[in-house]
Design a protein that fits this description.
The complex is a heterodimer of chains A (321) and B (118). Chain A is of the alpha/beta class and 321 residues long. Helix content of chain A is 19%, strand content 21%. In chain A, strands 6-7-8-9-11-10 form a six-stranded mixed beta sheet, with no helix packed on it. In chain A, α2 packs parallel to α3. Chain A is globular, with a radius of gyration of 18 Å. With 118 residues, chain B is an alpha/beta fold. Chain B folds into two domains: 35 residues; 80 residues, Cupredoxins -  blue copper proteins (Immunoglobulin-like, Sandwich). In chain B, 27% of the residues lie in helices and 33% in strands. In chain B, the strands form two sheets. Chain B has a four-stranded mixed beta sheet with strand order 2-1-4-6, with no helix packed on it. About 8% of the residues of chain B have low confidence. The chains are: A alpha/beta (321), B alpha/beta (118).
Chain lengths: 321, 118
């Protein structure tokens, strides 16, 4: 087999008919703004010019939205003493996109300590986009009060701990909460009630409906030793098995990772606050301090395009600097 | 005259006895304070250190967060639960009953520890 490169996905043991070498090559370019679109199991890459806007050179999508994650408003340790500044850079980048997004998804850890002023600050900075942001909580957003404050702010119309779904241009979006009721020694958890709701929520949808699921902790097992996974996600994915296109967007690990498993594309976003080490490359998954002039290259936003009739959504990551 | 002397002597001995008793009492209080009744656990690098401790009934355990990320201290059996601890914040709990008390960080559930009280 090909020798291991640092972009190799170490935990994907699926034989899904995808040209692995092409996929790895594509992923190596992803950080520089390469658009990778999967069509019929084959990856096509569109190299974007340096400095150009991700998504502009690709086919204009019928639906375009942005995923941001892990803003950790309130964090002030050496890994990034100015999370306000880097969050502002991310929002400026969003505002500068030639194809403005219809809306934003924030995949959690909005705040660092669940403090009201931290949530307020994020809301205030996001106002400049003029777009709605859909949120799901991270474990940092539900400290001390079982998520009550989070739900009051961002959970209108949601059920249980804050899960919900909505439709946009024929795409069905599902926001899941996997940071509540965590058990000692365990991973993220969706819980019985949420799984029952999910089964019912997607039951009557046509299998041709593109599905986007967003949740904080990865819904695939990235690295169990660090709690980077969700213990009951297999059940959730079983309910989505009938759909031809499922895109799962997560955060929590503060680095970009992508995995394809059959009809499901899993993607984790970079943080706008601080990076974390790659699985197993450090004693613990905490904030990773990098040289100040490199920090922004470890942070980023994700642009997602959906073109009606295409099999998969195009997911493009771009760095903050 | 003799009675007055008697009473005076009685008073002196009562006072003397009282002083002796007080002195005795004070020294026994000092002895009790010399027995250690608190243990520290450090939280750092996503772990509790030491992860397993054995303490006597009545010991107060104090957890201090030295990590650069917040953590909590939550008993598996809901016996105790800290609020979220940012860097340098502390949480203390006094163990009044013997038993084994497993606990974890509710924010990072892979972090676990145990207090055995004997």
């Amino acid at each position: 087999m090909t020798k291991k490169t640092k972009d190799e996905i170490l935990y994907d043991h699926n034989h899904d008919g995808i040209d692995r070498r092409g996929f790895l090559k594509c992923m190596a370019w992803a950080g520089t703004g390469t658009l990778c679109v999967m069509q019929g199991g084959v990856l096509k890459s569109f190299a974007l010019n340096r400095g150009s806007d991700p998504g502009a050179a690709a086919a204009k999508g019928e639906l375009s939205f942005v995923q941001i994650s892990d803003s950790h408003m309130g964090f002030n340790k050496p890994a990034n003493t100015d999370v306000v500044g880097t969050f502002q850079v991310a929002v400026d980048k969003i505002n500068g996109l030639s194809t403005p997004p219809e809306f934003l998804l924030h995949t959690g850890d909005i705040s660092h300590l669940s403090k009201p002023e931290e949530f307020d600050h994020v809301d205030q900075i996001l106002k400049s986009t003029g777009k709605q942001t859909f949120f799901v909580p991270g474990e940092h957003d539900v400290l001390n009060d079982d998520g009550q404050q989070f739900r009051e702010r961002y959970g209108k119309g949601s059920k249980g701990a804050g899960w919900y779904s909505f439709d946009q241009k024929g795409v069905h979006f599902v926001g899941l909460v996997n940071v509540m009721n965590l058990k000692a020694g365990g991973l993220g958890s969706l819980g019985h009630d949420q799984l029952e709701w999910l089964e019912d929520d997607v039951k009557h949808l046509k299998s041709s409906t593109p599905i986007v699921v967003f949740a904080h902790i990865p819904l695939w097992t990235v690295y169990p030793d660090w709690g980077w996974g969700t213990e009951d996600s297999a059940q959730a994915l079983a309910y989505l098995k009938k759909f031809g296109s499922v895109t799962v967007l997560n955060g929590h690990i503060h680095q970009i990772m992508q995995k394809v498993e059959g009809n499901v594309t899993f993607h984790t976003a970079a943080s706008t606050a601080f990076p974390q080490p790659e699985p197993g490359k450090a004693p613990s998954p905490g904030p990773m301090t990098v040289p100040a002039d490199q920090l922004r290259s470890y942070l980023g936003i994700t642009n997602v395009n959906y073109v009606q009739g295409q099999h998969a959504l195009a997911v493009v990551d771009s760095k903050l600097g | 005259m003799r009675i007055r002397v008697c009473i005076a002597r009685l008073a002196v001995s009562v006072v003397a006895a009282a002083i002796l008793l007080l002195a005795a009492g004070r020294s026994s209080v000092v002895n009790a304070q010399q027995t250690p009744a608190s243990v520290d656990v450090k939280i750092d690098n996503f772990s509790f250190g030491p992860a397993a401790i054995t303490v006597a009934v009545g010991t107060t355990v104090t957890w201090t967060n030295r990590d650069d990320i917040p953590h909590t201290v939550v008993s598996d059996d809901k016996v105790f639960k800290s609020k979220v601890l940012d860097t340098d914040e502390k949480f203390s709990y006094t163990f009044a009953k013997p038993g084994t008390y497993p606990y974890f960080c509710s924010v990072h559930p892979k972090m676990t520890g145990r207090v055995i009280v004997q």
